[in-house]
């Protein structure tokens, strides 16, 4: 049997919207036009006290907090933008709140998450830290409530017609779930341990672009490290290309000076500035040559007197370190030792034969 075609029924509204809904849609359209960023907030389970606190502070930041039906919000967006993407439509499900702002969305998200509102603990909440019942007068009269203190192992006594806690006692440890008895005792003691923040679903930019909540969380330390690395690489590139800026020229001139000194020393170009390096290098090479031929001197009938090894001062060590750095900058390869030709050429200068 051939399957029957399925027809999708489309409803077309023929009646005009009520005046109140038209007014709300127009107001939303005006807000979408006036503000660049709209935060969609999930307010399911959020206490009214938390919403009022945020409303007060957001108003001081120049933002508007509006609660409107999802259908009316989407109508306003469609009328304003012509169409609404699927990613935006998915946001408007459940119980939502809208925050309109011209502030940088990442800055505002950081502020929202960092501005928690204290509230009383409810059964099922997770303790953010050790919740302690402080020692002292609770101002509670003796009665059935004493049994709850006993269940929670909080030592108490009755004094002057009031319940007193004998010593500071941890009611709920950090990370543990708060049960009904603990929530009631904490409430009686006026302890508000829970920091509640608005639950951001996403941010909509100019009515078109969606920034998911995960993308709103920025690792400031990581970005700072990336910027610092970029500055280092850019500066290194500028120095190596001798890019003429005041910051780079100071380093480039010093680098050029050191390279010129290194070239002059290797070329044995004698100047008052290079003389000490050239002589030190000649002495080092002569001592190295003497050390190599010393074992073979008796066979050749020669007597070699090696110079005593000098005690290195801090200044000498610093000069050697500087010379090594010069070699590394110029890419000069370190010689393993004098060649046979160098040994032959040096014999006559050392021994006169």
Structural write-up:
The protein is an alpha+beta fold. The chain contains 14 helices and 12 strands. The strands form 4 sheets. It has a 5-stranded antiparallel β-sheet with strand order 2-3-1-11-12. Helix 1 packs across helix 3. It is elongated. It starts with 18 loop residues before the first helix and ends with a helix.
List its salient traits.
353 residues; alpha+beta; 5-stranded antiparallel β-sheet; 14 helices; 12 strands; disordered C terminus
TL;DR?
By secondary structure, this protein is α+β, with helices and mostly antiparallel strands. The chain has helices at residues 19-34, 48-60, 70-81, 86-89, 105-114, 145-151, 180-188, 213-216, 220-240, 246-266, 275-293, 297-300, 314-330, 340-351, and strands at 37-42, 64-66, 96-101, 117-119, 131-133, 136-137, 156-159, 162-165, 169-172, 194-196, 199-205, 209-212.
Strand content range: 5-15%
Low-confidence stretches: 7-12, 332-338, 343-353
How much helical structure, as a percent, in the residues? 40-55%
The best one-word shape is elongated
Overall residue-averaged pLDDT value: 82
């Amino acid at each position: 049997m051939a399957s029957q075609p399925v027809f999708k029924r489309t409803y077309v509204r023929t009646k005009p919207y009520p005046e109140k809904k038209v007014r709300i849609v127009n107001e939303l359209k005006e807000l979408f036009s006036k503000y660049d960023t709209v935060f969609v907030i999930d307010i399911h389970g959020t206490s009214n006290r938390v919403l009022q606190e945020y409303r007060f502070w957001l108003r001081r930041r120049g933002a508007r907090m509006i609660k409107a039906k999802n259908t009316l919000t989407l109508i306003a967006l469609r009328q304003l933008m012509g169409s609404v993407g699927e990613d935006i439509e998915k946001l408007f499900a459940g119980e939502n709140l809208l925050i309109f702002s011209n502030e940088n969305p990442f800055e505002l998200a950081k502020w929202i998450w960092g501005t928690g509102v204290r509230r009383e603990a409810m059964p099922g909440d997770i303790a953010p830290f050790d919740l302690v019942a402080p020692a002292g007068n609770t101002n509670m009269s003796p009665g059935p409530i004493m049994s709850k203190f006993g269940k929670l192992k909080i030592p108490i006594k009755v004094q002057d017609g009031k319940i007193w806690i004998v010593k500071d006692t941890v009611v709920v440890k950090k990370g543990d779930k708060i049960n009904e008895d603990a929530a009631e005792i904490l409430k009686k003691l006026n302890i508000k341990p829970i920091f509640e923040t608005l639950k951001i679903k996403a941010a909509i930019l100019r009515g078109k672009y969606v920034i998911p909540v995960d993308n709103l969380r920025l690792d400031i330390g990581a970005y700072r490290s990336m910027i610092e690395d970029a500055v280092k690489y850019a500066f290194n590139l500028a120095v190596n290309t001798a890019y003429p800026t005041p910051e780079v020229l100071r380093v480039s001139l010093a680098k050029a000076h050191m390279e010129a000194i290194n070239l002059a020393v290797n070329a044995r170009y004698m100047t008052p500035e290079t003389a000490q390096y050239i002589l030190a290098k000649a002495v080092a090479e002569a001592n190295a040559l003497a050390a190599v031929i010393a074992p073979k001197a008796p066979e050749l009938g020669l007597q070699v007197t090696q110079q005593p090894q000098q005690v290195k001062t801090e200044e000498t060590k610093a000069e050697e370190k500087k010379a090594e750095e010069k070699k590394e900058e110029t890419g000069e390869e370190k010689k393993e030792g004098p060649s046979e030709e160098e040994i032959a050429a040096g014999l006559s200068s050392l021994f006169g034969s």
